Amino acid sequence: VRHPASMAPGERGDVALEVRNDSPCPWSPMVHLGHRWAREGAPGDPVEAPERYLPGGWTEPGATFRAELRVRAPVEPGRWSVRYGLVQEGVAWFGEEGSSAPVEVLVRAAP
Fold it and tell me: Cα–Cα distance between 34 and 48 in angstroms, integer?
């Protein structure tokens, strides 16, 4: 995972991930890579971000693809973690065990 360690509120940053299908089933073109932000120490559900990476076709078992995307930091300063995972649009997010480890990001207050 390549991700900025700190970002300004609302700033866009470049991210690179490698994703491998370890399941016995192929992923359809409706399976996309997404991400959710969670504020450190704040209760509640993570904030789903609208950006998605579309692999562009079926991902067969054992196949790997590299995803490069631009993400936008939350608008509230603070310590946040971002977790990348797969989502079948209109259905559900894949299980947490299939998600990436959280990446810690400091969202700096504006000067």
Answer: 8
Identify whether the C-beta of residue 71 lies closer than 8 Å to the C-beta of residue 82.
yes
Q: What is the pLDDT of residues 6-50, one digit of tens each?
A: 999 999 999 998 889 998 999 998 888 888 888 887 777 788 888
For 76, phi then psi, to 5°, come to -90, 130
Question: Would you call 110 exposed, middle or buried from its count of C-beta atoms within 10 A (0-12, 13-18, 19+)?
Answer: exposed
Question: Could you write out the DSSP letters of every residue in 67-106?
Answer: EEEEEE--SS-EEEEEEEEEEETTTEEPPGGGSPPPEEEE
Question: Would you state the pLDDT for residue 93?
Answer: 84
